[in-house]
Write a structure and sequence with these properties.
With about 300 residues, the protein is of the alpha+beta class. Helices cover about 25% and strands about 35% of the residues. Helix 4 crosses helix 5.
Length: about 300
């Protein structure tokens, strides 16, 4: 009887170990801290400096925003970017003449591995038409991109097959080269680009074929944990009533674990469609002395 009890207890502990370790392997909890440092070198007291920061997405397949922490006396307001491109927080405070003032906002997140074929579908609201339109860096109406899109659409029969072909196209056409943002048309014409061009070309091809798609701006945590701004771009496409994450660039190396509708735990998705990362408003009394005030933003993940 004792041996049977010990055996059952051992089996129970083993099962618990498997469950816990599987859970740890599937999710990751991190805190993204944004530090805003304002150096007021002028002789004017700044009354009501307004700073706005994008908030990590709370409706992306890979992540869940658990909390936003801000431990200062003034209120923190949470507002929405246009078109569902995310949210931002707004803080307003005073900065005396000749002083440096700092504010920190902490975002607690749970990041989860995902696979859209295995995950339970969560149907999103139909996207606005703007995600079908050409725009700067996403030149879906340019002739070279329309020709590629027409070829893909006529070659494949299903939505997923067409979008997978669009996903593979940047990998086949482009030579990876780190550079300033050039966009989809440049990528096709020059045959090169970095993560931004890979994502922009996929989005442009998807839009040209009639599928809503958008860019995502992200913090990629594989080699660093401190950032001055998002250091990676990927994409999302709307298919079967939901938005699917797509990363044509990281898919070049299977060790990253990212691709068409699949992903790991090494990114924080901040916002969408080249939406601003931060912005600010200056009070009138600072006119003529704006060059005497510096604003620096530092992001850190732990």
């Amino acid at each position: 009887m004792v041996m049977k009890f010990l055996l059952l207890a051992g089996v129970f502990l083993l099962l618990m170990w498997v469950v816990v370790n599987f859970s740890w392997g599937q999710t990751r909890q991190v805190t993204l801290t944004a530090e805003v440092v304002v150096h007021n070198r002028s002789d004017v007291d700044i009354k009501g400096y307004t700073h706005r920061l994008s908030v990590p997405l709370s409706d992306h397949m890979q992540q869940r925003l658990l909390s936003v922490r801000y431990d200062y006396p003034e209120a923190l307001k949470r507002k929405s970017h246009r078109l569902g491109n995310g949210e931002y927080v707004e803080m307003v405070w005073d900065i005396p003449a000749g002083k440096t003032s700092t504010r920190r906002v902490e975002f607690d997140l749970e990041i989860t591995r995902y696979d859209f074929h295995k995950d339970t579908p969560v149907h999103d609201s139909p996207p606005p038409d703007e995600y079908l339109q050409p725009r700067k860096y996403i030149e879906s109406d340019a002739e070279p991109i329309r020709k590629l899109a027409t070829h893909i659409r006529s070659t494949f029969d299903t939505d997923e097959d067409r979008l997978r072909a669009a996903f593979l196209t940047p990998q086949q056409l482009l030579e990876y080269d780190v550079q300033s943002t050039k966009g989809a048309l440049y990528a096709v014409n020059e045959g090169e680009g970095d993560c931004t061009e890979y994502a922009a070309l996929f989005v442009a091809l998807a839009r040209a074929m009639g599928y809503p798609a958008r860019i995502t701006s992200e913090f990629l945590m594989t080699s660093k944990t401190e950032f001055s701004q998002p250091n990676h771009h990927a994409a999302e496409v709307y298919i079967d009533g939901r938005w699917i994450p797509v990363d044509p660039n990281l898919a070049l190396d299977s060790r990253f674990g990212y691709g068409f509708g699949i992903g790991g735990k090494d990114k924080i998705v901040l916002n969408r469609d080249f939406t601003w990362v931060w912005s600010n408003l200056w009070p009138r009394e600072l006119r003529g002395k704006r060059d005497q005030v510096d604003v620096n933003i530092r992001w850190r993940v732990k």
